[in-house]
Specification:
This protein has 295 residues and is of the alpha+beta class. Helices cover 44% and strands 6% of the residues. The N and C termini lie far apart (49 Å).
Length: 295
Amino acid sequence: MTDSPPYTPPKIWIWNKESGGRFANINRPIAGSTHTKELPVGRHPLQLYSLATPNGVKVTVMLEELLALKMSGAEYDAWLIRITEGEQFGSGFVAVNPNSKIPALMDLSGPKPIRVFESGAILLYLAEKFGAFLPTDLTRAECLSWLFWQMGSAPYLGGGFGHFYAYAPTKIEYAIDRFAMEVKRQLDVLDRRLAESEYLAGPEYTIADIAVFPWYGALAKGLLYSSGEFLQVQEYAHVQRWSDAIAKRPAVQRGRKVNRAFGELSDQLHERHDATDFDTKTQDKLTDPKTPNSG
C-alpha cells in the first residue's frame, strides 16, 4: 500500500467535482436560488423557516421562552426547511435569507414585513422587540460579548471539528487535532466563566445562554458528533452544571423539538403552529405503529 501523493493546490481553483462528505450534494461556490418555490405563510405575526440544528434551536428556544413570559406577539409558525434536500435554495427562502442558511425569520406584525437572518441577529432582534432576555444594566455589554463570542467560535466547532471528525470523507489527523484543540480551549473558556457566574452574562439567563447552549451545552452532554469521550467533556464541571440547569427549562425542552426531523419520534415536531402541537403533532403521534411480524 502506498500513501496518497501530497496535494498541490492549482494556481486557480476550479469547481469541477463534488467536495465529498455528507453535505457534498448541497455545497457550491455560488449564491442565489436553484429553483422557484414560494414559502408558506401561517396566521401568526412571526414566520420561522428553520431546522433543529444548533443554530435553529437557538431561535425556537427564544420564541418558546418569550411565550412562557406571556408575550402574545411572539406567537409563531415554524416551517421545516430540509437543508439536505436543498430547500434553502428555493427562491422564497433566498428572498428571506440571501445566504441560504437556516434559520430565517419574517416579522409580519407591522405595516411592512421585516426579514431577519443569522441566528444571532434574530435573537437580538427578538430580545429588543419584546424587551426580554437582554439586560439593560451594566451586564448588557457582557451579554452581547458572549453572544458574539458564540457567533465567532461555533464555526470552529461545527465547520471545523464537526466536519473533519464526523463528516469528512477521510480522517485527516492534522485537521482533527487542530480543531479538537480549539474546541477544548473554547470549553475551557466557558468553564472558567461559569465557575464565577451562574449564567454567561451574570446572575440572569439571557440571549447569550440561549445562543451558546444549543452548541456547547449539547457538546458537553455528548450529543454533538458522538464526540463526548473523545473530547472528555465531563471534565468541564461548570459547563455541565450550566447545561443541566438550562436543559431543565420547559421552554428549552419545547424549543428543542420544533423543526426536528431526526432522533426520537416523540422529540420531532416538524412544524409548529400552536402551543397544543407539542401534545398532538409530534411524530410518535402521527406515525402509525409498526405491525408486528407474525410467525
